[in-house]
Amino acid sequence: xxxxxxxxxxxxxxxxxxxxxxxxxxxxxxxxxxxxxxxxxxxxxxxxxxxxxxxxxxxxxxxxxxxxxxxxxxxxxxxxxxxxxxxxxxxxxxxxxxxxxxxxxxxxxxxxxxxxxxxxxxxxxxxxxxxxxxxxxxxxxxxxxxxxxxxxxxxxxxxxxxxxxxxxxxxxxxxxxxxxxxxxxxxxxxx
Length: 191
Fold this sequence. Notes:
Distance between the termini: 4 Å
Structural class: mainly alpha
Largest sheet: none
Number of domains: 1
Number of strands: 0
Mean pLDDT: 90
CATH class: Mainly Alpha
Radius of gyration: 17 Å
CATH topology: Arp2/3 complex 21 kDa subunit ARPC3
CATH architecture: Orthogonal Bundle
Order of helices and strands: HHHHHHHH
Low-confidence stretches: 183-191
């Protein structure tokens, strides 16, 4: 892997996370789009740099929205999970993004719901709040009301993000794919 590319991709990943989040918030989309850069870095550079990208994205975003800093935990977990899945399987077949998307699509709402419940009281100002409010009115607990809409949103978001990253990585020249390449021979050729 080219060291200049490796140094550049972390801030690029952070920028992608910001743009994705901005699009989701601005257009009130039923997805988050804030882990695409984290996944890209995790797939090309590994789980720890993916986690760093995710954590820094939320910490920097906390400048304008301090409570959002807590969601760094979710983004760090996404980086670790996707990075370890890429180490385990590579990221060059159609099944791996599905695995990464489903696993992160389940872990993210579980952890994110705890954060949303304890930091925001279940309502975060996002698309899901309409459903959360309705479920709260129907007598559901805050955790259940906050979790139910987040699960399908996260599955859609994380699976879609994982496949978007798959197609981006597939379009990269071999020397920039990093750990996304499955075989050790291909990894040594790419270095």
